[in-house]
Design a protein that fits this description.
Elements (H helix, E strand, L loop, with lengths): L2 H57 L18 H7 L22 H10 L14 H12 L1
Helix pairs in contact: 2-3
Protein name: Protein gvpI
Length: about 140
């Protein structure tokens, strides 16, 4: 291959990596946004359900249908659900790739990320470097 072909090949490879990383970050932002929307919807539904239950209790109708009473425990909070999955089998860096991996968001880390940030900024922090990115960058500069 001539130098010109080699340079063109390397340029296209760089563009493909940049596009893949950009797409990954966009997908990540969308997932975090969907999680926030789902949490808001759950909260609203829970409040409506409690309001209806309180209205029924206040009206004094009593239990007309004893079989209608749920024996299922109440829904866990987001914090309890977040702690449930505390490990991941996904490797921290992509296999066979030079692209830096993003910090994995699962379990408590996902819950903290989605609850500690204001509603509009969940996606913006993905463009900052994560501890994993910093350690990868340090390794590359030390070489």
């Amino acid at each position: 291959m001539s130098d010109k072909h080699q340079q063109r090949h390397e340029r296209k490879a760089r563009q493909a990596r940049a596009k893949a990383q950009h797409s990954r970050d966009n997908a990540r932002r969308k997932l975090l946004r969907q999680r926030e929307n789902l949490a808001r919807r759950r909260k609203r539904n829970r409040e409506q359900s409690e309001a209806r239950r309180n209205e029924a209790d206040e009206s004094g109708d009593g239990v007309e249908n004893p079989a209608a009473h749920s024996t299922v425990p109440p829904q866990k909070t987001n914090a309890e659900n977040a702690v449930r999955n505390s490990h991941s089998a996904v490797p921290s860096t992509p296999k066979y790739s030079a692209a830096p991996g993003r910090e994995r968001l699962y379990g408590q880390r996902l819950h903290q990320r989605t609850t500690s940030e204001p509603a509009g900024s969940a996606g913006t922090s993905d463009t900052t470097t994560t501890p994993l990115d910093r350690s990868t960058n340090e390794d590359q500069t030390n070489e």
